[in-house]
Every structure is written in structure tokens, then in C-alpha cells.
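Side project, low priority. Logging it here so it doesn't get lost.
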Amino acid sequence: MVSPYRCGANDRKMTMNTAALMPISPMRNQADIDAYVAQAPLADRLPGRSVYDVFEASAKRDPSRNAITMVMTAAPDEQPRQVNYGTLLAMIRKAANLFASMAGRGAGVAYMLPSLPETHAVLWGAETAGYAVPINFLLQTEAIAALLRASDAKLLVALGPHPALDIWQKALALREQLPDLQLIRVGGGNVPLEPGVTDLGAAFAAHPGDRLTFGKPRGGDDVAAYFHTGGTTGTPKLVAHTHAGQLAAALGGAVLMDIRPTDHFSASLPLFHVGGTIACALSPFMVGCDLVILSPSGFRNPAMVQNIWRLVERYRLGAAGGVPTAVAAFLDVPVGDADISSIRCGYSGAASAPLAVVERFKQVTGRNFYEIYGMTEASGLVAIDPIGGTGVAGSVGFPLPYTEIEIRHPGGERCAQGQVGVVMVRGPHISSGYRDAAHSVGIFVDGGWLVSGDLGYFDDTGRLHLAGRSKDLIIRSGHNIDPQMIENVMTEHPAVAVAAAVGMPDSYAGELPVCYVSLRPGANATEADLQEHARASIAERPAWPRRIHILDAIPMTAVGKIYKPTLRCDAARRTVEQMLVDPLDVPGAVVTAMEGGKRGMTITVTLPASAAGACVKVTEALSPYLFEVNVEVADAG
């Protein structure tokens, strides 16, 4: 049987306004990007001034073209749910009309939903009528309540009762804490609706899908969404996205990722993640291709990982990617006799990809692998290694069209080529700031520049390379963890005087949080005591420290500030030393760790002469990590 998805993945035929959006040929380098920018102003490239205009334009081009393919089980005989662009537009209109009728135009609509067609209707409908507040439903209830208060959301759309997810239980608990919050339930089977709860399906039936009933959609510099980032203690950090910013970022993603109308674009990131909403949703929708949702939970669903190559074959996926940990997991799955000829590239984002993952992808698929660099504060995207080029391992490529990136020394002067400095970004997709203006100080600076907090440098081709962070953010499998959140909790323990959380290198997750503490004079506490306290008090499970090290004193600068580079190096040294003992069984090696360099940190392993034959084994074992590695043998003399 011929798959219905075997349509021309390489066909670059444009329809209607898509030609103004996409270049004639794929981008390869900075010169191509500069030429594209010089040919037309940004406004002429976009389908309108509102995110809503994206869906109107795609539906106008071809309402019957498939917009979403919803894969639930990955079973060979599964008949996926399909939603075309005409139906998707109607769903968005219904959602927008519903939200405006319940809370008025301009109201905040929060949602706690896995990836479903209804989630897209809620997200884009919320942005059309007011603003969306995407919520990570894995957070604990108190953390979610703080986000709802800070965002002033009037409505909460949540998944109904589910055998494996406790989203609805959290939603009901939130209504108890926030009596004015109106609940809208998605699904829930035969479980009766609680009093005062609106059913999304029934509400959709009561609202028109052929027009907006409240006037013009929001657009331009109107706030489209507030995405939460950083910690969840104290006042939550909510990043404002405007319609103009999301459109500019989505355009850049579509162009540099070379997304084509005939593509079947795989979506595996959650829709509370900025990468899941912009690069992996709005960009494909802007082009008008088919978005293939790989289950409501993406690659957290083991069936999607274990069946990835069959999914590629059946749905003719043109790109295979996700966060580096997910890519590493599916690359361990044998391709077998699956036809993966539709794959044009691999990609990763949300965290740096280890070089071993890049090389492994090329070995398995025969295709190049590309990295994407984004930030919530930049509407999700900053730079992309263009899919039309050859790909350079370790590089995140070039700035988006209409975007500037500078590398600056701490004093503010620009760095020369090859010099490491702070990455600064300016462009139409940069956020207007945090909802709480106090959080914007030092991040959004004069001249429209965003201080990324990342360290990087440009190579001689103009590509951007990241070399660690000047800020202390810990990135675990693409999940951003604010170390201050951990530190605040740990210093609440009566025995702890000082706490410092840093990232410990991990071959799978990139980084795992660890915490160093010093105790108050005369106080006693074990690591087990402190772990119990951390797990009871930290809202985000991924932020629970993997280890808590008790030191006599935390290293400080001359002015009394915690000096985290020393702690990061110590965490890396401990990790490698443990690996050398178990599982490598290479006794007698000496490990040193030094902060800095082109990958942020350099690990040197000095083997005793008796273990000289282990050089290759040690080098290979350390290759998945994000630091540079030197393995040497001690002088026998």
C-alpha cells in the first residue's frame, strides 16, 4: 500500500504569498541571509500583523491542505487524526470567540494541556482574543498558582480527568486558591462536569468558526503571550511576547530551517515550551506544511522513541530532532529495514548538542545535523545553522534574518573574531521585557539589546559558537533551572549557612543540578537530611539536586560573592573521577577541570603509564559531554 504521505518532500513549488516568505533557494551562509534581508523589508515578508493572520493566510492558500496529523500510539495500523487548515482556522476562531465571551477581549488565558490539536486552538485562539499563558503542568500546584496570579489570567484551560496525568486535580485545586479563576475542561471522558466548569467541546459548538465575533484580532505590539522562565519561587519571571515578535521569529525559523509547504514536520516539544510553540509550530504553520504531532507527550512517550524510524517512513518526516537527550535516545534504535529516505536533516535545540550526537546522527542517517539557538526572551529563536548549508558541529549558525548579534567584553567593547564574550542580541523578535519590570534590569538594555547571559564567539565564516554561560542558569535536557530557586530553598534549612547550585555535567541530560552548602557554626546535617528538605520544598522535580556536597566553606570572590566557576569545575572533576572508577576501571588517573575555552570548560585526564592503553577508551567515554577533553599519559620518569 502506498503511504498517503509520500508526496514530494523536495518540491519547492510556492503558492500565493508563500513566495514572499521563502527564498528562491535554501539559505547556506551569512551572504544569503544578507541578500534576503536586502530584497524586502520585514513587513513585506509577513502574512500580516497578527498571529491570527498566519492561519487565515494558510487556510486561504489551501483550506484542504493538512495542517496537523495527530499520532497517538505509533501502532502500524493507527489511523491518525488529521486536521486541515480550514478546520484549524475554524477551531482557532471558536476558541477566540469563546474566550472573549467569557472574559472579554484582551484577557489572559492560561492552559495546562499536552500536545493536541485542541491545544493549538487554545494557544492561538488565546493570542487572537487576548494573551496566552502556557503553563508547565508538571509544576507543583503552588508554583502554578503563583504564575496565574502574576499573569492575571482569567481563564484556565486544562485536560480533564486522565488515568496517567493529574492535570485536572491540579486545576480544581487551583480554583480553590483562586476563586475568580474560570475553568474550561478539555476531554475527561464520561466524568460529569463539576459545577461552574465549561466543557471546551460543547462551548466550541456554541460559537461560530467562520468569523471573529469581538472585532479585530490582537496584533502588532500587543502582548500575545507570557512565557514563564527561571525559577518558581518569589515573583515568577514572565516574558512578554508580542505578535510582531513571534511573527519575526517564526519567519526566521521557517527560512533558516528551509521548511517547505510539502514537508511533514515532526513536533515533539511541549506547547508550554517556547521552542514547541514557535520553531516547531508557528514556523511550519506560516509556510503551510503538515505538522505531525508525535503523541501528546512527544518523546517522553517511549513508543515514539522506539518506533521513530517507522514513523519517519510512514509519515515521510523531513527532519528528525528534538532536545539532545531525545535525539541521543532515538539514535540508539536500529533503523532496520525502515525507509528513511525522506529525512533531509537532523536538528536540536533548547540545549547544546554533544559532538558525539552530531556524528552519530550522520552515521545513522547519512544526513547533516544542525543546531538551533533560542531564548524565551527572543521569542524563542536567536540563531540557526541553516539547513541548506553543510552544518558545522558545535555551531549554532547565523543570526535570524533582520537580527543583529554582537559579542562583547564585560566592559561593553566588541570582541574580535574568535574572542569569547557575552552574546548580545537585537532584532524585531526581542521581547519588550518581563511582566515585572524589575526583572528586566540589566537584561534588556539601551539600544534594544538583549543581554543573553551566554558566552560565545564568531568563527571566520561568521557562525556563532556558544562557549558556556556568564549567567548561572542550569539547563537539564532543555529544561531551564534557576539555581537561585534551589539556593533559596536550601538556605531555609536551619543548618545551612550558604548554598550554591551549579550544573554537573551529564552525558544524557547535558547538565544535572548539584548544590554545595556550608553549615552554620555548631550545626549538623547529612546529605540525606538536606535531600529530604530539598524534595519537600522545590516545586520542580527536575530541579531536585542530584548531589548535595557539604563543604567547610564555599569559595568566594574578594567582595564576598560566591565564585561558581570553581564549583562547576569541582562538579565536573567529581563526575569524571567517578566515571574512571566505575564503569571504566582506570585507577590512578588525575583529573583537572578548567573553566573557559571554546566549549566553556576543559577537562584534562592524566593517566598513569600503566594505563596508557586506556587513552582511547577514556576519550570515547567522555565524548558525549559538553566540555573539551584532553587525555594524556604521565611521564614514566
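Brief comment: Residues 244 and 592 are 48 Å apart (CA to CA).
Revisit when time allows.
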